Amino acid sequence: MDAAYEEAKTIVAQMQPEEKVRLTMGILALPLVPGAEIPEEALMSAGFVPGVPRLGIPALTETDGPLGVAYALGLRGDYATAMPAGIAMGATFNRDLAFAQGHAIGAEARAKGFNVLLAGGANLARDPRNGRTFEYISEDPLLTGQLIGWNIAGVQSNEIVSTIKHFALNGQETGRKFVDVQISDTAARESDLLAFQIGIEIGQPGSVMCAYNRVNGEQGCASDYLLNKVLKQDWGYRGWVMSDWGAVPGLYAAWNGLDQQSGSQLDPDTFFDDELLAAAEADSDHMKRLDDMNARVITGLIATGVLENPVATGGDIDWDANAAVARKAAEQGIVLLRNEGNALPLAANAESILVVGGYADSGVLSGGGSSQTHPEGGPAVSRPLSDSGAFSGFISEQYQRGAPLDAIRARKPEGSVRFRPGRYSSDAAALAAQSDVVIVFATQWMTEGVDVSDLSLPDGQDAAIARIAAANPNTIVVLETGGPVDMPWLDDVAAVIEAWYPGQGGAEAIAGVLFGEVNPSGRLPITFPRNVAQLPREDIPGMLEYDPDFAGNPPSPDSKLFTDYNIEGSDLGYRWNARQQQEALFPFGFGLSYTSFASSDLETDGASASFTLRNTGERAGATVGQVYLVSRDGEARQRLVGFERVELEPGAETTVNVEIDPRLLADWNGDGWTIAEGVYSFALGSDAETLGQSVDVQLPERSWTD
């Protein structure tokens, strides 16, 4: 972006003082704040920033869009392709598919007149109870960074801007605007920040969106450490930093690295307009900073092609092609967790099938909040969590169209497929005893703004599944969840598939897996703990002290809330389990198939690795080769250092080569990275806990800076 920044500076030199505060402040372009004025040229969406037409700088039209162009409460009267949740993308371990999904969403955004997509969710899943777990990719920095980087590249291939967000350590929704994350620089650099760093290197996003939370006492969007030191100085990032909506504490955020105040009606005041200009005119250093703020915004527009190729509404959309991407992503994201006695795929002689629960007669579950997307027709079902407050519409349990029941019936036209809603387990259990197969759809709804208090299935679903399985052990559970859940009934059911929030292609994808048209190939991008006692924190900090609040504001100015991430440091998820020597219910990287695979012949010099994957079964399928660092000088130190998704015909084998990012072997030394001299042990695994024989490599000490 350096060349784009130099070009941007020549444009800034032509700007009048009052023009320099147009690009630095935006509004929420939705009628949710009483008395707020929305310009006619603004699209009904997340945000609008006026441009400088005299200099050819367009207005910024911004839409939420990690999972598709956001529905925005239906206020625009349109729709978009609804992609699976971010965590489902993580489960594909597929970089090419991440790019394709980003490209499809970006193409729709451009056709609708948007030039900024608020996408690129790169936060690591430090706690599976986080309400936005479903929006993010995984608990691992390599997997997250690579997939989100390619996803951003796909978005920006349409010559629009994508963000990467929420920078950084945005690990819970409870008290999200005032929770203070405590973490050392070393631990942050080796985990959450590394995920962002890799994503930025690959995707080159035009903008970075900072986070609501505090980090070591500083508000994320006013953090000199995050924005100036890490992002702009150490990483050399040249694009612009936009705030999250309502995350700006004051004008001083500009001096600490924030370039643009977004959704300004939600902040205590509009800081980045007249107040910013007055400060700049009174101080030459502040004027230089204001010039830099503008140059960074324009750099993002130049580097992504927006300035040269402005967007316009009314573009063509290839709905069929985008729907195919959504369905493929849903298929590859589904994880087969259990399959006792080859209960799946469903046998052709299963004549009587009972489908229970999960609104399976209507649609598939999606996550709530600003990322909510819907295809044509809007939600099939909507259950409000609350009917009070301006943002209540964002936090309703919504189901996207495409009914799994219809997809199942289409595949059994001659058989008996019955349905029960599952509100009462008595009739479902009675019918289960009379059926060949029972398919229970179980849901765990998650949303921005609210965390879940535990990992049980809500509304008594665990008890219902147990009762149904007792009546018919040939019970298959289809999970539509935003993350891991407890499974107290696991040993009593025949099969379990994790479908996540599968998007508009979810019904066909689920039915395809159930009936064997699709060989499941998803792998868990997040650890499923045996119980919450295995997590670093027993409860989400603040959940019992503070009532749910979508905005996440402190109930009083002196309200305090702290989350100590130094407990696990950089060892989260499977790394935490390795450190604690505890076994997961289902480990990171786990996933079954309808065929079998073997892996062998790991060779590595610490800079790259090669290995062989072979399909030892009787049908075509895909697997994910996973290379882990397992120890250094005999001390346990687990890191995913390479992965590759490979499709193989029966009996076929292939040699896979992966590069190893040296930062995954190194320690952060305060100024850069150091690989300590020693013996590094690597292993090939089918998941983080099922590892082959280790290969030792002696590495010399070396240090470097990025």
Topology, pairings included?
Blueprint: H1 2-12, E1 27-29, E2 45-49, E3 60-64, H2 86-92, H3 95-111, E4 116-118, H4 141-156, E5 161-167, E6 180-182, H5 185-189, H6 192-203, E7 207-210, E8 214-215, E9 218-219, H7 224-234, E10 240-242, H8 252-255, H9 274-282, H10 284-304, H11 319-333, E11 335-339, E12 352-356, E13 363-365, E14 381-384, E15 396-401, H12 404-411, E16 416-420, H13 425-432, E17 437-444, H14 461-471, E18 475-481, E19 495-498, H15 506-514, E20 562-564, H16 574-580, E21 597-604, E22 608-615, E23 621-632, E24 635-648, E25 653-659, E26 667-668, E27 673-675, E28 678-685, E29 695-699, E30 702-704
Parallel strand pairs: 3-4, 4-5, 5-7, 6-8, 6-20, 7-10, 12-16, 12-17, 17-18, 18-19
Antiparallel strand pairs: 1-2, 2-3, 8-9, 11-19, 13-15, 14-15, 21-22, 22-25, 23-24, 23-28, 26-27, 27-30, 28-29
Please describe what this structure looks like.
With 706 residues, the protein is an alpha/beta fold. It contains 16 helices and 30 strands. The strands form seven sheets. A seven-stranded mixed β-sheet has the order 1-2-3-4-5-7-10. It has a six-stranded mixed β-sheet with strand order 11-19-18-17-12-16, sandwiched between helices. It has a four-stranded mixed β-sheet with strand order 9-8-6-20, with no helix packed on it. Helix 9 crosses helix 10. The longest helix has 21 residues, at 284-304. It is globular and about 80 Å long.
